Each structure stands twice: as C-alpha cells, then as structure tokens.
Amino acid sequence: MIISQITLYHLRMRLQTPFETSFGITHDRECILLEARAEGLAGYGECVADRDPGYSYETSGTAWHILQEFLIPQIINTDLLSAEDLQNRMAQVRGHQMAKAGLEMVYWDLLGKSEDRNLKDLIGGKGDRVQVGVSVGIQENSRILVGVVEDYQEQGYGRVKLKIKPGRDIPDVTAVRSAYPDLRLQVDANSAYEIESAMDLLPLDELGLLMIEQPLAEDDLWDHRQLQAEFKTAICLDESIVTVRHARQALEMGACRVVNIKAGRVGGLSQAIAIHNLCFGKDVPVWCGGMLETGVGRAANLALASLPGFVFPGDISATDRYYEEDITQERFVLNPDSTITIPDAPGLGISIDFQALKRVTINKMTIH
Ligand code: OSB
Ligand code: MG
Would you please indicate which residues are annotated as catalytic (active-site) residues? Predict the structure, then answer.
C-alpha cells in the first residue's frame, strides 16, 4: 500500500449541548480528519486530539505539527506492508498516540477498500451490532442531571456513565441511582482526585456501579492499585493506559479490574487490539471508550467493539447525541436494544459528506 498524498482537515464542530467534565467544558469539538490517496483509492481517518490539553497533552495543534513534520514524511510514498510496519515507521516519534492513531485508521480504511472487506472482518470482529451507552456530562444540579438521564433512558440507552468531580459526586450519583435503581450505571472522574480525596468516594461503593473510571492522575498506576484494594467496585483505567505495557503492568499490580480502550489514546487500532487480546487472555473485561468522534471515528469504534473481550457497553452513542450535522453521509442511530449497527461497507464503511465537511473545516493542508 503506497500512499501518495495526504490532506489534513482541521475541524471544529458545535456540540448539540456543551459537555462538562472535571477538566472543563467543551462547546465545540475539534479534531483532524485525514484523507489519503493510494492506488486510486481514498481513505479516511480521524485524529481525536481536541483543542485543549485537558484530557491529554495532545491537542489538534500538536497533532497537526507531529503529523505534518514527522509522521507523514516517514510513511508517504513508501510501501506500507502492514499496520505493524506502519507502527515501526512511526516508532521514532515518542508518544503522540492520537496523531499516530489517526494515521493508522487511514491505513485500515485503505486496506479494507483495496481488499473489499470491512474493518470488522479485517480485525476478526463478530456480530452486526454492539452494545452502547451514553456518557453524561456534569449538569447544573442533581435535579437537572436526573432529567437528562431520564431523557436518554427514554431514547433507549441501557447504560449511563456520569461524569464526576470533587463537590459533584456522591449527591449527583445517589440522585440518579435513587431515580433508577436498576439502571446500568458507572462514573468517570477524569483524574480529578488524589489518593486521599478519593476516599470520599467510598459511598459510591454501595450504589451498585459497574465501575469507577480513572479517579486518579493520568500518569499514575500505583495509587490506583492502593485505591482498588479499598473498593469493592471495579476501578477502570482510561487516561493511565497509553501503551500495551501500561495495560500489562496495571493488570499485574491490580491497579484496575476493567480497561477502557480507545484506539486514539493508545496509538492506533493495532495497539487497541493488542490491549484487548492481553485482557481477553486474562479474563479482564474491556469496553470501548469515546472521544466525541465524528462518524469516521465512530465507525472505527464500532468495529473495534465487536471483538469478543468488549463485554461492557461502549461510549459509542448515536450521532444525534453529539452533532446536528456530521461529516459522514451515514448517521448512526440507536437500535431499541441499546445497540448501534456496525457499518458493513468496505474499510470503515462510511462516506464523507463533502458539503458538511467544508462547513466545519477551519484549516486544510495537502502533503505529497
Ligand atoms: O474520559 O471517556 C472520557 C469525551 C472526551 C474525552 C474523554 C472522555 C469523553 C467521554 C465521552 O466520556 C465519550 C463519548 O461519548 O464519545
Ligand atoms: Mg474516561
């Protein structure tokens, strides 16, 4: 597979409603769409780095720089033999997982199109749909939060994740649990606590949560291990796992009992699959996290989440939970059984809506 040209599109897309987490409020989602030409085909990928370095040190700005100056020059006009070969060529860049993952997604889309196979089949996924849930941002107060959850529940979401932060934790989660005793419920702190303040979360242990996601620092494993020892509820790591090695060490030391897998965070689909395989071999459940993707990244997430170790529902919601207008012609809808159907056309299985793309593009550059 020889890629002869890549165009980067810096996108800014207005969210349906602002999304508040412990690291800030997002009104407009930024990302980079990659469009590659190879052997008469067009392939697409999404780099999920956002405008601000709140979730990760990577931003749409750093990813643009790393792609333009270092990653794309490494792989353009050379014969890419496999995803592994692509990873080897990108390995001289330290970190910058989201930039790498965007490029790897392009490779998979092209590979699928050239072999007339969809991504799910290429990676060995099963079934035609995956179980999904919705990630609910911090609201003005508990009463409004319960109303928002009610709305999603009526839309058919069978699993809800609540964002929490110090001062907005126990009362919020308790209010939702009281209103919905049987709802599949989990929380995500996005690194907002320290080992000491996280002990304030102990009442959550009585609320029957599926898991507590990333309570402590993004560069921490050891304190998570200490915390997991104090809680009955499973700790799930998101930010702390950016390589396969982190996943292995986290499991070896007992820093978590569940892993959130995002291809963007771990440097690409091949690395996401490797973490899945590691966890599957140790009977550790995983699930597919989300980064408020466009339809491009959403398609990749759906294929990934069809692997057998993805036993918890993914943060893969319907298009209308995020955007009024998306850049794919396909819109993803929630099936009545709280699933979303995996696209089955070749590659990612999506096609770009170029009119919509034009409306959300704030910068564009082509590299030959
Ligand atoms: O921590 O899982 C997270 C969104 C942006 C950055 C980090 C996270 C999230 C979400 C939303 O929780 C998941 C989604 O619906 O895409
Ligand atoms: Mg998270």
Answer: 163, 262
